[in-house]
Amino acid sequence: MNNKNNSSERYSTYKFTCKERFLKYVKYDTQSDDSSTSIPSTEKQKTLLKELLLELKKLGVQSEMDIKGFVYAQIKSNTKKKVPKIGFLSHVDTSPEVSGANVKPTIHKNYSGGNIKLPKDNQTISPKQNHVLKDMIGHDIITSDGSTLLGADDKAGVAVMMDAAEYMMKHPDFKHGDVMLGFTIDEEVGTGIDSFDVKKFGAEFAYTVDGETPGEIEAENFNADKVEITINGNSTHTGYAKNKLINSARIASEFIEKFPKDKWSPETTEEKEGFVHIMSVNGGTEKTEIKILIRDFEEKKLTEYENRIKKMLETIIKNYPGASHEFKVITQYRNMKDIIDKSPQVLKYAIEAVKRLGIKPIMKIIRGGTDGSKISFMGVPTPNISCGEHNFHSRAEFVSVQDMESSVKTILEICSVWEEKSKKKVYK
After folding, report:
1. Cα–Cα distances in angstroms (integers) from residue 256 to residues 249, 289, 305, 310, 385, in the given order
2. Of the candidates 73, 123, 234, 282, which lies 20 to 30 Å from 351 by C-alpha distance?
């Protein structure tokens, strides 16, 4: 089946399950916690992971859950060809920024255009701010009731992967190599994948299923560092403070005031521009701690930003005798493009899969991070593909049922392309 007509016919009688699965999964509160040191950061993530493990076993998929909560699964090859092991991953946790408890999904059937008004908290999703809605006329759109996020990031990806697994298990005539599935923890706090066992996962190439519009393929992301600054002052009784008190909060305020107001920040940058984001400031007279995110598509620019920030701080500290500071740079993740470029077929086959479905491929960059970035640097080139999520990390989050179904097809077509491109008993 090499053309889009045959690919469409392949699914014409299939009853997709991603909608029902998604509506079920979003009711699990799986919010991660960026202040936690446990793995996973919240034990409640395991509740959904245990449910996924149960569902996989009912489908007959070989699967297991490790002590940390990761679920690893394998749909065994049904072809005589030697096909590389292809993996797909999605994360079960939701953002710490907005509540994911008591999610009440709302279905807006046969969207006809205009604003989508959510039942609670005067929340509205408008086409003016969400241009993608113009392409969703006639779709069934799922939102929360407006009081919480929806959880499409990334439970849409979870639902899509589970639906694709069901299709493969129920259609033995659909030829594929070994397909590896990974359901992961703590993506939203950036720590989960550090504990992921790539050997147990077993894939040679993989795709995270955590993107927006069908046809979008992302193989380039920010390089990322975090800077942690501590400013040490000296506290004393304010009534007797002359020539003794050193106010670290005042020093911090002066330091932050030196940051440019028309550039550098996330709110003043776009596309391939990097940024410096003052994430948090906490403290008082004696000690103030500042956390800053540094992002750029060119790794060397991270160092340039960091050097400028450090120089700004040191210049100010000199004006406060007795004050001191600590400046710590923490590596977070790097641009997966450097790895994926060495394995061009991982993108080439995804692009072909999308084309077979009659969808125009859209190559995008990620102004953020992805589990795929870290996994790529673990030796498994892993770009990102769509699952239909939009407005992630907000109460205005939404997903289209039809877009999720399109993503199921994309996963299956990727598996099909890899199988077709492989030769009998030969793999180069």
Report:
1. 10, 12, 14, 12, 38
2. 73
Active-site residue, 93 included: yes
Catalytic residue among 153, 154, 178, 187: 187
Tokens of 290: 């500042």
Q: Would you write out the chain's pLDDT as a tens digit for each of its 428 residues?
A: 445 556 768 898 999 999 999 999 999 999 999 889 999 999 999 999 999 999 999 999 999 999 999 999 999 999 999 999 999 999 999 999 999 999 999 999 999 999 999 999 888 999 999 999 999 999 999 999 999 999 999 999 999 999 999 999 999 999 999 999 999 999 999 889 999 999 999 999 999 999 999 999 999 999 999 999 999 999 999 999 999 999 999 999 999 999 999 999 999 999 999 999 999 999 999 999 999 999 999 999 999 999 999 999 999 999 999 999 999 999 989 999 999 999 999 999 999 999 999 999 999 999 988 899 999 999 999 999 999 999 999 999 999 999 999 999 999 999 999 999 997 754 44
Collapse the DSSP code of 140 into the 3-class scheme (helix H, G, I; strand E, B; otherwise coil) and give the result.
coil
Domains of the chain, each with CATH number or no CATH = 4-221+335-421 (3.40.630.10), 223-333 (3.30.70.360)
